[in-house]
Amino acid sequence: MTKFIIRWVINAVALYAAVWIIPGIDYLGNWTGILWLALIIGLLNALVRPLLKFLTCPLIILTLGLFTLVINTAMLLLTSNIGQSLGIPLTVDGFWSALLGSLVMSAVSIVMSVIFRDELKGKHN
């Protein structure tokens, strides 16, 4: 359960960083909406992303893994659409904003995962 909460917080911080840094991504709600969006993107990454990676495996191999950036972009756009349908005001202006946002989210997620590495692996010193 602790790993889930840490991953959820990492997603929330990464999404907030993308909203804060990328001008084409706007969020007009409060902090609880960011938590809901982080949950949505976490569920999409757990359920839809593996299927997309499996279906696009030849493209991922052909582009030496760069096509995963397009998959991450699609996950951010899908999160925006699902959030808007649930009344959470996240707007992503287009593909390029989503691509930059997914890059920011990936970078923040990597840095925070390194910081919380021991907690995510279950090791406590």
Description:
The chain has 125 residues and is mainly alpha-helical. The chain has one domain (2-121). Helices cover 77% and strands 5% of the residues. It is built from six helices and two strands, in the order αβαααβαα. It has helices at 2-21, 31-55, 57-62, 67-85, 95-115, 117-121; strands at residues 25-27, 90-92. A two-stranded antiparallel sheet has the order 1-2. The longest helix is centred in the middle third of the chain and has 25 residues, at 31-55. The model has no long low-confidence stretch (mean pLDDT 92).
Concise summary:
With 125 residues, this protein is mainly alpha-helical. It has helices at residues 2-21, 31-55, 57-62, 67-85, 95-115, 117-121; strands spanning 25-27, 90-92.
Strand and helix map with partners:
Blueprint (H helix, E strand, L loop, with lengths): L1 H20 L3 E3 L3 H25 L1 H6 L4 H19 L4 E3 L2 H21 L1 H5 L4
Antiparallel strand pairs: 1-2
Helix pairs in contact: 1-2, 1-5, 2-4, 4-5
H/I helix tally? 6
> What is the averaged pLDDT score?
92
Q: What is the overall shape?
A: globular
- Helices and strands, in order, run as HEHHHEHH
Number of domains: 1
Task: Summarize this structure as a short list of keywords or feature phrases.
2 strands, 6 helices, mainly alpha, two-stranded antiparallel sheet, 77% helix, 125 residues, single chain, globular
